[in-house]
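Run log, item B.
One chain of 248 residues. Sequence copied directly from the ordering sheet:
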Amino acid sequence: MVNKYAKPCYLILLLLPLLGQAAGSTLYRVEKVFDGDTILLNDGRKIRFLGINTPEVAGKDKSAEAGGEQARHWLLQRLEQQGISLEEDVEKQDKYGRTLAYVFSEDHQLINLELVKNGLASVSIFPPNLKYTDSLLEAQRSAEQAHLGIWGQPDYAPLAFQHLNENNYHGWKRITGQIQAIKQGAESSYLQFSDHVAIQVENQYGGWFPKLADYLGKTLEVRGWLHKSKDRYVLPVKHPGSIKILKP
């Protein structure tokens, strides 16, 4: 059994030129693996992997989530004694000041994609960062069908919206139900499972979606993090890749 409370491990500090690739490219070594989707380079930059999310590991003011330590351990083993290169997308940093990147191994494999293929990460899309969206979503479908990693964990099984309550809405969720109504507001539109549970699509992201009216009457699974306000649960999504149509 892996110790969920193990401290992040350190790797060898080293910075090497990346030979045989485009001029100006650099091969880095990793100093620290925080969890399955966040690392520290020896040049001081904290890197947040684009397009994916892995479960939390235990830390200050947060509990370990199922599969979090497995993802961290896999990433540590994958990157140990090996250099990495980075590829950016449209946005360079997140609101926490972390560098956003696709991380490649020395043998030119996309680590973000490998984590998804192994069922260690779910796809988490934040437009306009969409370079590898299709590949990531296809890898997720395959891992899910094979019940790999998190897709075989009871903690991440789909939950019917009727069963949401104060005790089970925290963390990354898969919520299912039929869309009963669509409400439009000044800043967001809402796909309503009921008066108390809805999917939120901010208008600034509406262009990435098909017509929201097309979801009406369909049974969906939506993935992400719920917010609760009084007796209402809302799950914001930024890309249709977070929505799966179960029944037309």
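Observations after the first pass:
- The first helix runs from residue 68 to 79.
- The first strand starts at residue 15 and ends at 17.
Flagged for discussion on Thursday.
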